[in-house]
Specification:
Elements (H helix, E strand, L loop, with lengths): L1 H23 L2 E2 L5 E2 L4 H23 L5 H27 L11 H11 L3 H29 L3 H25 L1
Antiparallel strand pairs: 1-2
Helix pairs in contact: 1-4, 1-5, 2-3, 2-4, 2-5, 3-6, 5-6
Length: 177
Amino acid sequence: MMKSLLAAAAAACLFAGAASAQDYAYRWTPAGTLAPTPPAPTFLILGGAGDLYEVESSRLVLATTQNPEIRRFAQMMVDHHTKTTQDAAAAALRAGLTPPTPMLDAPKSAMLASLARFDGAERDNLYLTQQLMAHKEALGLMKTYAETGDTPELKAAAAAAVTVVQTHLTLVERLMR
C-alpha cells in the first residue's frame, strides 16, 4: 500500500508541475520564485487555486484523520487559507480589480482526487506530502509577486501571505519527521 501511496504522490507532483508550466508558461527559478512575474489577474487565479486546494484537501483530511497533530494543522489550513483568499479579494477590490472566484486548476484537482482515494494513515501521509509541495509552490508565488508584482495592493497582500505560508511550510516539515 505504501508503494501505491508514493506512486500516487509522485504522479500528482509530476502532473502538477507539468500542467502548471504548460498552462501558465511560467518556470520556477533556482531561488524558488516564479518567472516571469504573473500579471495581477493571473496571480489572483493562481493564488485562489492554491488557497482552495489547501481548504478542500484539509477538509477532506479533517473528516478522517485520527492524528491530533494533523487535525490541528488541517484546521489551521482551513482557517488561514480562507483568510488569505479574503485578503487577496479585498486587495483586488481596493486596486479596482474584480477578484475571480477561486477554482481548482487541473493539477490541484488531480491532487485532491488522489487524496480522496486513500484513508487512514495513507491519506494522512499523502496529505503531508502534498502540503509540502503546495506550500513550496505557494511560497514561490507569494515571494515573486510581493517582490515584483504589478499591483501595489496585491503586492502588500502577497507580502503578508509570505510569512503565513512560510510558517505552514515549517510546520508541515516538522509533521513529516
